[in-house]
Amino acid sequence: MAFAPRGPEASFFEVLDRHRASLLADPRGAGGEPPGGGSRLASRFEDSVGLQMVSHCTTRKIKSDSPKSAKKFALILKILSMIYKLVQSNTYATKRDIYYTDIQLFGNQTIVDNIISDISCMLKVPRRSLHILSTSKGLIAGNLRYIEEDGTKVNCTGGATAVAVPSNIQGIRNLITDAKFVLIVEKDATFQRLLDDNFCNKMSPCIMVTGKGVPDLNTRLLVKKLWDTFHIPVFTLVDADPHGIEIMCIYKYGSMSMSFEAHNLTVPAIRWLGLLPSDIKRLNISKDSLIPLTKRDQMKLDSILKRPYVTCQPFWRKEMEIMADSKMKAEIQALTFLSSDYLSRVYLPNKLRFGGWI
User: Fold this and answer.
1) Neighbours of 150 (CB within 10 A)
2) Contact between 23 and 269 (Cβ < 8 Å)
3) First to last CA, the chain
4) Residues 352/16, Cβ–Cβ less than 8 Å
5) In this structure, are residues 139 and 164 in contact, taking their beta carbons and an 8 Å threshold?
6) Rounded to whole angstroms, how far apart are CA atoms 139 and 19?
7) Across the chain, how many H-helices and E-strands are there?
8) Radius of gyration in angstroms for the set of CA atoms belonging to the chain, rounded to a whole number
9) What pLDDT score was predicted for residue 44?
10) Which residues pair with 210 in a beta bridge?
11) Disulfide: which of 24, 124, 270, 315 matches 358 by Cβ 3.0-4.6 Å?
12) In contact, 271 and 307? CB cutoff 8 Å
């Protein structure tokens, strides 16, 4: 195709190739086996899609003649009128753009964000169909080329630099890659360190993505588009803490707030590559590098363990129980205790070569 692999020999990817074959054999890609309006908050879980809004759920009414909801009714009409003009003129605006059209009226950005989500849910259409775009914060690097809606050709193989995730994922076309896998990196600092270590070239061909913490809509849409287009394995690299697990779950299963758009956002085929709580003991990481779970961490972990999708992920549950029992968490940076480049030189290559994902 368009790229010549410069990384490991073909035999390195044997386990990855078998994993991909198993994903293609199971269209849902959601198995947990090891390799080898107010209505927006009412969700159900389906392992092939993720969290979805239930068909019969509690709703709330907003009336123009009610003192309690008159202002919100007016704001909804205001934004609907702006959406109408955007669609009629075939132009786009960001949520920030809409907020700045009348700061005094809207009060704060959160109000605008919530109303747009309510409208999207109410009309049962993706936000981009309303011609409203989100400002992207994510980055992408590695073996990928595509053409943006305006005809701009983008090449993500720039070595130590990354490309911003496009603001209109629906508009990108002609995606080309030879990548064997996609690696989602939780934190920007880790992503940048992997770029500095030339990871994309050493593990070529591959694609790296980061949402810089909790992913924005465009980063989630991009990961979904990569999966739908290429059906290559998608892995996550997150901290061994409840927050990292939560972020991984958003990519894989979605969030309650966006459950009405789960089909467009979730990738149930995603696997947890690291950092696994069991890796902490296996690698003999120093206790000085570990952090005690806070009360908030413990509450978050308990909440995740009670979620319906954890029942079909016994290996995930086991890892979370290890964390709960130890009452400790670890950041990916704890691996630097072993060596400064341990993550890119040893940890990730071994995980990818020998199937160390769940």
Assistant:
1) 7
2) yes
3) 30
4) yes
5) yes
6) 26
7) 15, 15
8) 21
9) 52
10) 139, 185
11) 315
12) no
Is the pLDDT at 32 greater than 60? The verdict is: no
The answer, yes or no, to whether the previous bond of 144 is cis (omega within 30 of 0) is: no
Q: Collapsing DSSP states into helix, strand and coil, what is residue 134?
A: coil
* pLDDT confidence band for 321 (50 / 70 / 90): very high
Instruction: Record the tokens describing residue 167, joined without a space.
Output: 């603001």
Contacts 24+ apart (CB under 8 A), 111-119: 111/75, 112/79, 115/72, 115/75, 115/76, 115/79, 116/79, 117/40, 117/257, 117/258, 118/37, 118/40, 118/76, 119/76, 119/79, 119/80, 119/83
Q: How far is residue 55 from each of residues 41, 123, 260, measured CA to CA in Å?
A: 12, 14, 10
Catalytic residue among 100, 251, 342, 347: 100
Read off the pLDDT band of 37 (50, 70, 90).
Answer: very low
Q: What is the mean pLDDT of residues 178-194?
A: 95
* DSSP helix/strand/coil, 270: coil
Tens of pLDDT, residue by residue over 89-120, are 988 888 889 999 999 999 999 999 889 988 98
Q: For residue 153, what is the enclosing H or E element?
A: strand 153-155
Omega cis (within 30) before 205: yes
Q: Which residue has the higher pLDDT, 258 or 41?
A: 258
309 is catalytic: no
In this prediction, residue 260 has a pLDDT band, given cuts at 50, 70 and 90, of: low
CA dist 241 and 324 (Å) reads: 10
CA distance 178 to 205: 6
The yes-or-no verdict on residue 43 having pLDDT over 80 is no
